[in-house]
Automatic annotation (TrEMBL):
PROSITE patterns: THIOREDOXIN_1. It comes from Advenella kashmirensis W13003. Residues 51-116 form the Disulphide bond isomerase DsbC/G N-terminal domain. Required for disulfide bond formation in some periplasmic proteins. Acts by transferring its disulfide bond to other proteins and is reduced in the process. This is Thiol:disulfide interchange protein. Belongs to the thioredoxin family. DsbC subfamily.
Length: 264
């Protein structure tokens, strides 16, 4: 039953990721790289507080039904009749009647600030202390003082590439949330890793050397990890979280990892 539920979750999650990705990709195909906008007033009030709750819920429902996506939140912007629609950690825009969806970066015409990028960075932050690290494989290098958490699939090529970069890091603790979403045998491999006596060694040997984990069975946190990933809007692997609250989606080189690990 657990595997069946995992497959159902994976199918729905992937469909929603694809739709959210399609909305975001629209900007690069049909639109200019950024949209410049003038605030509704020189010193706009907090429009999100003034927005009518029923209107926001109506917009949320309309966009969700039109594109078959889970809309995380809708809020008014500081620009006339333009509303921010959050799709996980992605942002698109619409009007009060949800007559269109605009994917692309919103840039303030006066300040030249990239409003969209700022908002995405803001909503993507995660309080590292709230992560259930007991559900993760723990790898300590050096004194382990710096910390990062990574959602990884055993069959993820970019995750394996990331592990090559991890070799260059020192004084870091890496928490790996096994997140099997890419292939039918991902769950089996993740289970074998979690149930191994030396999880960290078995995991790194598989990711770095291709040493297949020995078959093992036990209770695992895999279903909990999948649910955690959904809540954190993890849309692929690797997804990296740092103590600073920052996150990085995808493979990055060791230099960038060190930069983020040192960030306060």
């Amino acid at each position: 039953m657990k595997f069946k539920l995992t497959n159902v979750w994976r199918a729905r999650h992937c469909r929603q990721i694809a739709m959210a990705g399609l909305l975001m990709a629209t900007a690069s195909v049909f639109a200019v790289p950024a949209v410049q906008a003038q605030p509704a007033s020189a010193a706009p009030a907090s429009t999100s507080q003034k927005a009518d709750t029923a209107k926001l819920e109506r917009i949320r429902t309309a966009v969700g039904k039109a594109f078959d996506v889970d809309v995380t939140k809708v809020q008014a912007t500081d620009y006339a009749n333009l509303y921010e629609v959050q799709l996980g950690n992605n942002i698109v825009y619409t009007n009060e009647n949800a007559e269109f969806v605009l994917a692309g970066n919103l840039v303030d015409a006066k300040t030249r600030r990239d409003i969209t990028t700022e908002r995405v960075e803001e909503i993507s932050k995660v309080d590292f202390s709230t992560l259930p690290l007991e559900q993760a494989v723990k790898l300590v290098k050096g004194n382990g003082a710096r910390k990062m958490a990574v959602f990884e699939d055993p069959n993820c090529g970019y995750c394996k590439k990331l592990h090559q970069e991890l070799k260059a890091l020192d004084n870091v603790t890496v928490y790996t949330f096994l997140f099997p979403i890419l292939a039918p045998d991902s769950v089996t491999k993740a289970t074998n890793v979690w149930c191994a006596k030396d999880q960290a060694t078995v995991w790194t040997d598989w990711m770095n050397k291709g040493t297949v984990p020995a078959e093992a069975t036990c209770e695992t946190p895999i279903e909990k990890n999948l649910e955690l990933g959904r809540k954190l809007a993890v849309q692929g692997t690797p997804a990296i979280f740092f103590e600073s609250g920052n996150r990085v989606n995808g493979y990055v080189p060791a230099a960038r990892l060190n930069q983020e690990l040192d960030r306060k």
